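User: I'll paste a sequence; please echo it back and then give the predicted structure.

Assistant: Echoing your sequence first, then the prediction.
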Amino acid sequence: MFGYARLEIRRALRDKSYLIFGIGMPVLMYLLFTRLGAGPDAAEWKVSAMVGLAAYGALGAALGSGNGVAEDKSLGWLRQLRIIPLSPGQVIAGRVLTSAVTVLPAIGAVLAAGAVVNGVRLAAWQWAALVALLWLGTAPFTLLGLGNGYRLSSQATGLANTGCMLLLSVIGGLWFPVAAFPGWLRAVSSWTPANRFAELGLSVTHGGAPAPATVAVLAGWLAVFGGYAAYAYRRAARTV
């Protein structure tokens, strides 16, 4: 399983689209958002935008794990995996490990831009906890991306994952403050995985721990997307 994961990690890190859109784009968006039209609360905005765009980059990288699955399916690689001594759970676990590695550069790049370019200052434990929580919080999105990859064609997976990334990011408040949303949209946002994902990081920047409700909502989505990924893999195994 670990050998399979190492292979997939090398493939992912060599992908130019991952470097451009998975790492470069969130950094560029963060710098644009914080450098244009900064108001009197610019310092707070630099911190919250840093967390939101780091979450956005990690979300995109996690969902992108499903694109590789769909490509492998179209090339017949999934058929080859069925004849080697790896259980379905080990195959999915290998993909989850791959995603766990590839999301780290997306998180680290935005946080580095916040510290170096925008002068964000946090305690050492806050930086460490921020990285750890954002890293762990990507698990539901990895499973959603894998489910799409196993269930859909290569082209459809790319479109579905892009659509999920944009919809979750906007409604979840990763690009814009949730406080600016109308009341009904704020209520919807609080139940989305992306909003609670960002809350993991924001709680640390405020010197606290994630709220139990945040953990509970994310755990619920983890179960939903995990079930979807398992169902999609079993279906793909029967048809590929």
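Residues 2-239 form one domain. The chain is about 80% helix and 0% strand.
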